[in-house]
Amino acid sequence: MAAAAGGCESDEAALVREAVAGDGPSFDRIVRIHSPRVFRFLCQMTRQRQDAEDLTQQTFIKAFHNLGRYDARRPIINWLLTIARNCALNHFRSAKKWVEIPEETASDALSPSGMAEQNEQTASLWERARTFLSQGQFEVLWLRFAEGLSTRETAELMGLTQTHVKVLIFRARQKLIKGEMPS
Amino acid sequence: MNASKEKRPRLTCRLVRAWAAIREREAGAADSSFEAGLPPAACRHVAACADCRRFFVESRSLEQALRREAAMGRPPVPEGLARRVSLAVAGSEPPRARAFPGLAIAACGAAAVALAVFVFDRNSPAVAPDSRAGADSAEVTRLAAEVATLPGALWESAKPSATAVWTEEPLRREADAVYSDARSAVGFLEANFIPDSGGRTGARPSS
Question: How much is the pLDDT for B21?
Fold first, then answer.
């Protein structure tokens, strides 16, 4: 397992090296591997599929033109998520809003079954977390438990200290337990 | 007494929970126990406090539920997203290098220096370059002779006198008017309100 993971990492490092050297197909492979995860991350940030897709494109364009700055010691997905987060924040800053978009607009392109699934999700724990928590708390919680990043990686991605991340998680957990889990 | 007060955990409980959150172990925190990083005294508290034990259990189950729901409720990725992204990347242009702000500052400095040189050059007397010294010196001598022969009256008429400048200056005239008004006002006050030697003011009608 560890060997496989190590192999995966070395594959990724080789891909990045080739992409940095200007090999287009290598970057295309990086896009194929990581675009779904970047898209999903942006989906939860923007709650608009179209915006998420545009921002995914922006993310990879920025990554492509800044490959030289990539720190090969970090997993490339963390770097991509950092760029994606910054793109989303810029997007909200330019739109002058950080509003909750109604769910029906977020599911424009979904089939009826997808709509039903989406409606089910509105009652999910994450939807409640979105309602109860501050943006920072929600983001930390998402990165930590939905994206599966470590505390250190979450802190790096958000530009916070590890202690700050832990405090945000603690408060988020307390709020959710108090608000959503009747004793 | 007060339900919300009763519900609020005790200070010790809150401290222990916060401590556990900060000391939480990195790897597999959801599966490992929260109280793993706690000092012995806090562990003893957890062992004795049912509320804290319940809180840690709930925390653990909450995190597991968050992980589970995140895995289940992933939005579908649009068809051909990777292809569209690759096309967008291929068609993108590298961002323009941002102009170094020092260049703008240097350009402004150069412009300021040029302006200063220009102004200084205009105000300073013209100095003939060495190469033209011979040709210009004759002309200078001729002009000096002409200037010397200018009638003194003409020179005097062209030069405005200090008095004329003084009197023609509107601000000065305004100041003079204000001064004279102030003087008359003070004179009036002095004449009517300053008590005389008998203690009466000038404004009172003399009996």
Answer: 81
Site from A27, A48, A130, A170 to mutate, B interface, most B CB atoms within 10 angstroms: A170
What one-character-per-residue DSSP string does B164-196 give? HHHHH-HHHHHHHHHHHHHHHHHHHHHHHHS--
**Contact status of B136 with chain A (Cβ, < 8 Å):** no
Provide the pLDDT for residue B31.
44
DSSP label at residue A69: G
B96-153 pLDDT, tens per residue? 666 566 777 888 888 888 888 877 776 666 555 555 556 667 777 787 777 676 666 5
Is the ipTM here above 0.85?
no
Distance CA A149, CA A143 (A): 6
CA B59/CA A181 separation, integer angstroms: 10
Give the integer Cα–Cα distance in Å for A35 and A13: 17
Query: What residue has token string 């020092």?
Result: B102
Question: What is the four-CA torsion angle of A33, B74, B58, B12, rounded to 10 degrees?
Answer: 60
DSSP code per residue over B82-149: HHHHHHHHHT--PPPPPPPHHHHHHHHHHHHHHHHHHHHHHHSPP---GGGHHHHHHHHHHHHHHHHT
pLDDT of residue A10: 66
Residues in chain B where the model's pLDDT stays below 70? 1-8, 25-37, 95-101, 122-136, 147, 149-168, 195-207
Q: How is residue A126 written in tokens?
A: 């994450």
In order, the DSSP letters of B142-161 are: HHHHHHHTS-HHHHHHHSPP
Q: Do A57 and B85 touch (CB under 8 A)?
A: yes
B26–A152 C-beta distance less than 8 A: yes
CA distance A49 to A114: 13
Which B positions 39-68 lie with beta carbon below 8 A of chain A?
Answer: 54-55, 58-59, 62-63, 65-67
Task: Look at B62 and A56 and tell me if their CB atoms are within 8 Å.
Answer: no
Is there a contact between B85 and A65 if contact means CB atoms under 8 Å apart? no
Alpha-carbon distance B51 to B57, whole Å? 10
